[in-house]
Design brief:
With 235 residues, the chain is an alpha+beta fold. The protein has one domain. The chain has 5 helices and 13 strands. The strands form 3 sheets. Strands 4, 6, 7, 8, 9, 10 and 11 form a 7-stranded mixed β-sheet that branches. A 4-stranded antiparallel β-sheet has the order 2-12-1-13. A two-stranded antiparallel ribbon has the order 3-5. The radius of gyration is 18 Å and the shape is globular.
């Protein structure tokens, strides 16, 4: 009975939870609010994490958006060429900011177009990858590749949709996947906490210990802190 319950609970997540370890790191220091400084910090964090013993893949995401999550999408967005209803419901989606390796490490399939790339940085044209739920709800039968969306106020740039990926449960295990707009973390607004996601065949405790040592060495050179009581790891 317990085995059946476990299989039912972790079926249809849209990602592969096995052998994943997640560490939450606070990077909300004043120095890290500058885009170039934040970019250098996260790039260094990824490089060091990827070099840890037993690590197969490493990626980062806004810590608040790592699935399966517990909150629903509340962010509105605009679609180029479509009138926004005055006083009516606007399109709503999640805005996770992720690194280029996030989809591979989570096992999220590419359905159309391309994934986010390392080259989608500060100086590159604004882009995004959306999920199938968003395409179904807001694009009907239209091909979304090449269409543009705006994920902020009117002074924010339009982002070109370059790819479509599979759906992931991001608002709890019991809720269906919600429309999602994935942003390159280098092009996104600063977030206070980074979710460092690692895939490894080693036990979670072993990987977590290596991550703590890595962050401690990073602390001596970078203004990054660990949130006491909030670092988390899971198999």
């Amino acid at each position: 009975m317990l085995e059946s319950f476990w299989k039912l609970r972790y079926t249809g997540l849209g990602f592969q939870p096995g052998r994943l370890v997640v560490a939450t790191l606070n990077i909300s220091g004043t120095a890290n609010r500058e885009p170039a400084r934040r970019s250098a910090l996260i790039t260094e964090l990824l490089a060091r994490a990827q070099s840890l013993p037993g690590v197969e893949l490493a990626a980062v995401s806004d810590a608040s958006d790592i699935p399966p999550g517990s909150f629903h999408a509340t962010n509105t967005f605009a679609m180029e060429g479509r009138d926004q209803p005055l006083g009516g419901p606007r399109p709503i989606a999640r805005y996770p900011a992720v690194s280029s390796g996030y989809f591979a490490i989570m096992g999220i399939p590419l359905l159309e177009g391309r994934l986010l790339q390392v080259s989608d940085g500060l100086e590159a044209p604004p882009v995004t990858v959306v999920n199938r739920a968003l395409v179904r709800r807001y694009f009907d039968r239209d091909n979304p590749i090449g269409k543009r969306v705006r994920t902020g106020p009117n002074d924010e740039p339009w982002r070109t949709i370059v790819g479509v990926v599979g759906d992931v449960k991001g608002s709890g295990l019991a809720s269906p996947a919600e429309p999602t707009i994935y942003l390159p973390y280098l092009q996104a607004d600063p977030f206070q906490a980074v979710g460092l996601v690692i895939r490894s065949p080693l036990k979670a405790g072993t990987v977590a210990a290596e991550v703590r040592k890595m962050v401690a060495s990073l602390d001596s050179n970078q203004p990054v802190g660990r949130r006491a009581g909030h670092d988390r790891s899971s198999e």
